[in-house]
Amino acid sequence: MKRNIILLMLDTARASDIYGNKSLQNIGEMARHGTVYKNAVAPGTWTAPTHAALFVDSKVSKIKQVSQDFFKNGTKKIDPWMVKTKFLDSTDNTIASKLSNHGYYSVLFSNNPFLTSYTNLATGFDKVYDVWKHSNSKYKKKTVERVSFVFDGGAKTRDRLYRASYAVSRVIPTALLDSVYTRLRLKLDRGVAEADGTYRLDRGANDTNKLLESYLKYNYNYAPQFIFVNYIEAHENYPVKKEVVQDKWLYLSGVRELTDEKREMLHRAYLKRIEYLDKKIGETIGTLKRAGMLDNATVIVTSDHGQLFGEHNLLYHAMPPYEGVSKVPLIAVNYKNGKIVRENDIVENPVSLLSLHGAVLNLASGRYDMLNGNLRRDRRVFCEHTGISEGWDEQLLSMLKNKSTVANRIYKAKRRHNRRVTALYQGKFKLMHFFGEKKDELYDLSADPNETSNIIGEKRQVANQMLSEFR
């Protein structure tokens, strides 16, 4: 009998806050008894690149739709939430498509608007639940309706809105423009967040679990299942005091100061989301067990990227792939007759999340009984940052930057971080390659897991060898 394969994608969960976190009872139990990959590396630095790469088994930089310059092309080619941006071709042979050749029925439960049938990331799945469509609009429907024209109207609507905003800005005295622009920016951020519930503890996990239970009760067709669930609870924005600004570009541009107090407050709120998500995963496991899905199954817990809370003076993700962004949890657990098969295994060497593509197919074909497959034999492990994802306001920033100091600083900050950076891993070493934009950095992660000491000056030969293999 073919095993069921369940992949739980904890969007934006970083490895350092999953492993060893005693508050996570359900994930902790899986980690204690399953196989833990301590140094798993995401292929990309935000949702779309990592999912696209994993689904089609390709480097992020080789997929043009997710490695385009979103800041330069943002106004013309994408919508602000990228709900309708195509991240794959509709004809791509994805992991879901390939699993159908092995007799699998593939189901996607998505809490993330990037991961949807609208963006082609759901290509190949037999059934798609766009959970985010309901969960992200049920709190303040009137607000959603008021702002929806900006997102649904396409580039022409946004272009008219930006030009109207610029026309208004020309009659506002320069001395007041910074204050007006900042207030409007914060008001828009909070209005959208309150409308779609992103300041609440639950961001769709509860709805997802209800839909999963309903699917297994009423729609399950007794074929071997590939169930992919994206939980977005760990993603910003976070449930903190209203006066705490959560616009990362105000911090990265230096307009607002990211104090230790604010950084710790955001991190604590993030950890509360992780703890809540752990409880929901416990519910998921219970639902799967009652439905008989765990009589013969492999459950995989991982993430598409991590999150930064001030490390290297950076915030959140879609940033250069330092450890907070690039290192993600990866836990694999086999179940027989509803119970965990105790493996108690820890893999220390770096592994790429890209290898999940082949490893899952090996499981489906019966070639391996465990997830490992080629995971333990990974040699070339890297995380690619091809640029920022927040390009929707590039046109407005370009218009305002010569008159507004705040707009100018944000524009420059976005340009500064909109550069290609690749993190290369080999054994204990990690090389941050900046493609000539700045000097490369080399870290010995065994002695310096927080990347505080750049040793490239004394280990130039190691860096050159790693870069040569990558090229």
Describe the protein's architecture and organization.
The chain is an alpha/beta fold. The protein folds into 2 domains: 424 residues, Alkaline Phosphatase, subunit A (3-Layer(aba) Sandwich); 31 residues, no CATH class. Helix 7 crosses helix 8.
List the helices and strands and how they pair.
Blueprint: E1 4-10, H1 25-33, E2 35-37, E3 40-41, H2 47-56, H3 64-67, H4 70-77, H5 95-100, E4 105-110, E5 127-130, H6 131-135, H7 141-152, H8 154-169, H9 174-196, H10 205-218, E6 225-231, H11 248-252, H12 260-290, E7 296-302, E8 308-309, E9 315-316, H13 323-326, E10 327-328, E11 330-336, E12 339-340, E13 345-347, E14 351-352, H14 356-365, E15 381-385, H15 394-400, H16 405-417, E16 421-426, E17 429-433, E18 441-444, H17 460-470
Parallel strand pairs: 1-6, 1-7, 2-13, 3-14, 4-5, 4-6
Antiparallel strand pairs: 2-11, 3-10, 7-11, 8-9, 11-12, 15-16, 16-17, 17-18
Helix pairs in contact: 7-8, 7-9, 8-15, 10-12, 15-16
